[in-house]
Structures are given as structure tokens and as C-alpha cells.
Amino acid sequence: MKLTLGPLLYYWPRQQVLDFYEAAATWPVDTIYLGEVVCARRHELRTADWIALAQQLKTAGKNVVLSSQALLESAGDLISLRKLAEAGFALEANDMGAVRIARDAGAPIIAGPHLNIYNGATLDWYASMGAIGWVPALEMSGAALRQLLAERQCTIQTEVFGHGHAPLAFSARCFTARHFDLNKDACEFRCIEHPDGLPVNTREGQPFLRINGIQTQSATCQSLWNDLPELAASGVDAVRISPQAQYTQEWVAAWAAALAGTATPPDVATWQPEGISNGYWHGKAGLAHIVGSST
């Protein structure tokens, strides 16, 4: 299996983003995804900046995929999407409009995790539209994935979201702005103050969600670290690591060592103090942490 670095889901200062990817160019990841998936109002990097960064990483020897927004809301979003599709890279489509635009532009498609692909026939249809890879929905269990792969007729790369705060849902309303009693169009870009999202607890003080602009994420870090043997046996071709403000490099190194058969236990208490979970993969509640095979 290969390692990939998923798109940055958070709003970081421009220099932090550039420094992060300068370092990532040396990491043992095969593919790096770039682009704004969550909110078009985030403007530290513009579309042209993402494309320029993609060229730099390609020159450094990385396979680069440009990622589209999951929720398109304006004509400006469509203009940016067309620029991404025409930039000469594969496009991770997180919206059906992105599938159509990428197909019209002749760009190879990665069917993103926010598309509804739950059976082999649907995956075959996306392959007929130009998809060369896909990322299953975050809530798909290992058993369901194996069933889907048994049903498909196409040859397509399967990439599983292996580590990071799971993106759960999107809304036209900005949760972060609402938290600070601000309007979405006058949000003051408060997301930039929370480089890994804003944790939300229940009234009883239990971790519940993580809000990230218009996106909600899992409170814990979804990690399939303990499920690596089953991932390989399930026909998974690549594992996605989602960028975080701290310890992404350490997690990438740990996963790379595990794939090479030289793994040492990660320092979960330091690297992921909020805890890890893998319930979805085992067909359980997503926040569960299960050790042992789900087969």
C-alpha cells in the first residue's frame, strides 16, 4: 500500500501552509492533495497559489491531485473549480458538479469521500466518467468495502481515510461564525485561530464534535493504525493521512515504517491526546476504539 497526504481541511496562515508543504515534499508519501475543500472565503492561498504549489511538488517528485470544494455555493466557486480542472492535474471531485467539469476538461478524477458511492455498480459508473481512484465514505465499514470491491467490474485505486479528524458533514451555515455570534459573511475568519478545528463538548462535558467552519468533524482522531493488516487484506491500495497542525510528520513516518514492516508503537498520548477511534471501520459507532479484527 501507498501513503497519501490528504487536502488541508483547516485554515492556516499562508506561511504555515507553505512551510508545511515544503517539509511534506521530503516525506514518504506518494501523493499529495492540494486545495480548499471546506470554505471559499478562506483566502490565505488563492486558486493560482494552489496550482503553483502543485507544480513545485510535482517537480519535487510527488504525484499531485487538486481537490475541489465539497459544497459549491457561488459562480465564483465554479470559476475556481474550472481553473483547477484545467491545470493539468488529476482532480479530487467532492461534488457532482466537479465530476462533470473534470470530465469536460479531460482531467483524471479521484472520486472523493463526499460522493455517495456505496455499491459496485455506482463505482463502475464513476469509473466510466473518468475516475481512476476513489475514497470510500468515512462511515463505510471494512466489511462493506470488501463487499463493494467484490461487486465492481472496474479497475480503480481504492484509498481509505486512515488517519485524521474525520470530516462528517457540511452545512451552508458556518458553525465557527455561529459559535462566536457572527454572521457567515462577516465571520472575521475566526477559523484561523483554531488550526485543528474547535472542539465541542456535550452538556455533560464529553467530547462530541469538532467544528471547522461549515464542516463538522469527529472529536477524536479517526485512526486505522491498529487495522493495517486488515486494510491490506481488504484490497486497499492507499492510506490517507489528513494534515494536522502538529505531529503529521511523525504519523507519516510511523505509517511508512509500518508499511515497510519496521513499525514501532506511535506515541499516541503525545501525538493525539484527544484519543483515537476506528468504530466505523468495524461497523460500530464511529467514536469507538476497537482493537482486533472486524472479520
From TrEMBL:
Pathway: Cofactor biosynthesis; ubiquinone biosynthesis. Keywords: 4Fe-4S, Hydrolase, Iron, Iron-sulfur, Metal-binding, Protease, Ubiquinone biosynthesis. [4Fe-4S] cluster binds at residues 39, 174, 187, 191. GO terms for molecular function: 4 iron, 4 sulfur cluster binding; metal ion binding; peptidase activity. One of its GO terms (biological process) is ubiquinone biosynthetic process. Coiled coil: none annotated. Its cofactor is [4Fe-4S] cluster. InterPro entries: Peptidase_U32 (IPR001539), RNA/ubiquinone_mod_enzymes (IPR051454), UbiV (IPR043693). PANTHER family: PEPTIDASE U32 FAMILY, UBIQUINONE BIOSYNTHESIS PROTEIN UBIV. Belongs to the peptidase U32 family. UbiV subfamily. Required for O(2)-independent ubiquinone (coenzyme Q) biosynthesis. Together with UbiU, is essential for the C6-hydroxylation reaction in the oxygen-independent ubiquinone biosynthesis pathway. HAMAP family: UbiV (MF_02233). Forms a heterodimer with UbiU. This is Ubiquinone biosynthesis protein UbiV. The lineage of its organism: Bacteria, Pseudomonadati, Pseudomonadota, Betaproteobacteria, Neisseriales.
